[in-house]
Amino acid sequence: MAMTPVHREAAVEDPLAERILRQALEMAEDEGWEAVELTRVAAALDVPANAVLDHYRDLDAVADAWFLRGWRAMLADKPAGFTAWAARERIEHCLLAWFDALAAHRRVSVEMLRTKAHLPHLHTWVPMVFDLSRTIQWLREAAMLEARYGTRRAQLEEIGLTALFVATLRVWAHDETPGQQETRRYLDKRLRRAESMLQRRWGTPAEPVSKR
To answer: Quick count: other Cβ atoms within 10 Å of Cβ 166?
Structure first.
């Protein structure tokens, strides 16, 4: 069973859970994510192994707690005037918030995702699909997209945003540039192209582009 958002929230707010997460990340930076063992994490923290189990059922749950940082970043307080930004700008801001929140451990984050998607790990496939869906739903809400859930427009937004997120994730996974500039350029280009295509197809008036 996947860790629910409520359980994740409880995990990251507990001091020991935070220490476990940080220790696992440090080990992963040195040895790779798949080399991390929760019993070794417990030993490094000088706590009983069952204390780790009280917070994380397995290493995948630790990864889930780390990715929660991305959701939180997307939903964090927005800059002044955010509601007046063009939809493209709001989406860009929220997506970059997700990537920036995980940037300190980008390589490990990518390894976590690869481990989740590894063929023998069938127990992580379905939860990963649902987490991707939740990420897109949080993105739509954080970016204040107006289409109501379940409508045709909302469904099209979800498809488009999912494709955009996955494509940007591929770029981010290999982005060694300072401040993730390659990811930023790619995302800006994709969003501007999508905005232009929508305007040509449906004659949608261009939204005012605010100065940030």
So the answer is: 10
pLDDT at residue 139 above 80? yes
Q: Poorest-confidence range of 21-35, 65-79, 193-207?
A: 193-207
Sequential DSSP letters for the chain: -PPPHHHHHHHHHSHHHHHHHHHHHHHHHHH-GGG--HHHHHHHHT--HHHHHTT-SSHHHHHHHHHHHHHHHHHSPPPTTGGGS-HHHHHHHHHHHHHHHHGGGHHHHHHHHHHHH-TT-HHHHHHHHHHHHHHHHHHHHHTT--SPTTSHHHHHHHHHHHHHHHHHHHHHHT--SGGGHHHHHHHHHHHHHHHHHHHHHH-PPPPP----
Burial class (CB in 10 A: 0-12, 13-18, 19+), 15: exposed
Query: Which of 5-19, 31-45, 143-157, 169-183 comes out lowest in average pLDDT?
Result: 5-19
Token digits of residue 86:
């063009």
Residue 54 identity: D
Residue with structure tokens 């920036």? 100
Q: Which residue has the tokens 């476990």?
A: 20
Which residue segments constitute the domains of the chain, with CATH numbers given? 5-202 (1.10.357.10)
Give pTM, 2 decimals.
0.83
Task: Mention every residue, 6+ apart, whose C-beta is less than 8 A from residue 187.
Answer: 92, 95, 96, 164, 168, 171
